[in-house]
Amino acid sequence: MFTLFDELGNWFSYQLLGLSTENQLGSAVQFFVMDIAKIFFLLVVIIYLMGLLRAFVSTEKIREVVAGKPKWMGRSLAITLGSVTPFCSCSSVPLFIGFVEARIPLGITFAFLIASPMINEVAVVMLITLLGWEIALMYVLAGVVVAYIGSIVIEWFKPERWVESYVWDIEMRQQQETEALQDSIQRRHSFAWNEVKVIVKRIWYWVVIGIALGALFHGYVPEAWVSEYLADSSNWWSVPAAVLLGVPLYSNATGVIPIVEAMLNKGVPIGTSLALMMSIAALSLPEILILRKVIRWPALAIFVAVLVVAFILVGYLFNMI
Fold this sequence. Notes:
By secondary structure, the protein is mostly helical. The chain has one domain. It has 16 helices and no strands. Helix 14 packs antiparallel against helix 16. The longest helix has 36 residues. It is globular and about 65 Å long.
C-alpha cells in the first residue's frame, strides 16, 4: 500500500514539477510529499478506527483486559506488534496516540513506539540479504532488548502525568463514550470522526514541520559524509556521535540499511553502524516534534535520553564483540 505514496511523491516531484531524480531538491520534495500523504493517511485511519473501537467498547473494558495480563506479556505483545508493522518513527505515532486514547499503559505503549520503527520483516530480510544473518540477528536482538528494557525504564518515571490533557480528559471522554455506546451506528461514526478532527487539528502543523525537517536532511545530507567521519574505531566519541547524528537523519530501518552497508564497506565498526541505524530509525527529530503534541517535555526528554543511552551502550557492546 505504501508504494502508492511513493508513486504520488514521484509524480508530484518529477513529473508535475519537473525536478530531477538526481537533484537534492527533487529528492527532498519527493520525500516531503510522500510522507505528508502517508502520515496524514495513517493519522486519519488509525485515530478513526480507535475512536470507533472505543465507541463500541468502553475504555473501562479495555483497561480490564490489559490489567488482567502480566506486564511482561503486554510488553512482549506490543514489541511483537511493532516488529510486524513496517512503520517509520513518525508513522508509528498515530498508533501510539490510539494506544494512549484506549488507556493502554504507557509502559506498554512506549515498547511499541520503540520497536515499530526499528524492527520489521522487510528490514530483517534486507539485512540478511545484504549483510548476513549474523548482523541481522544482532540487530533484531538489540532492538527487542532496547524496546523491552527501555519501556520499563520509562515506566519508572510514571509518564502518564505528562500526557497532554486533551488526549485523555477522562470525564469528558467517558461522557462522550457513554453517549456513543447508547446510540446508533451514525452516532458512533460521528464520535470517531470527531476524534480525528480534534487530534489532527491539534498536531497537524507539528507533523508538517517535522516532515519538512526530515525531507531537508533526507535530500541534502550526503551519505558519504556520514561514512567518512565515523570510520575511525579508535575514537571513543564515534558511537555517541553516530547516535546524535542519526537523530535528524529521518528514515525507516529499511531505508537506512544501504547507509549501514556503505559504512561497513568503508571500515566503520559494526557497533557504530548499528547505533546509527537505530538512532535514524527510532529517534528522529520529526518524530520528537510530533510526539511533543501528545506528551510534555519531561516525558519526551526521558524517552530521548533512554534511547540515546541504550543505543550508545549497544554500539560500544557490539564494537567490543
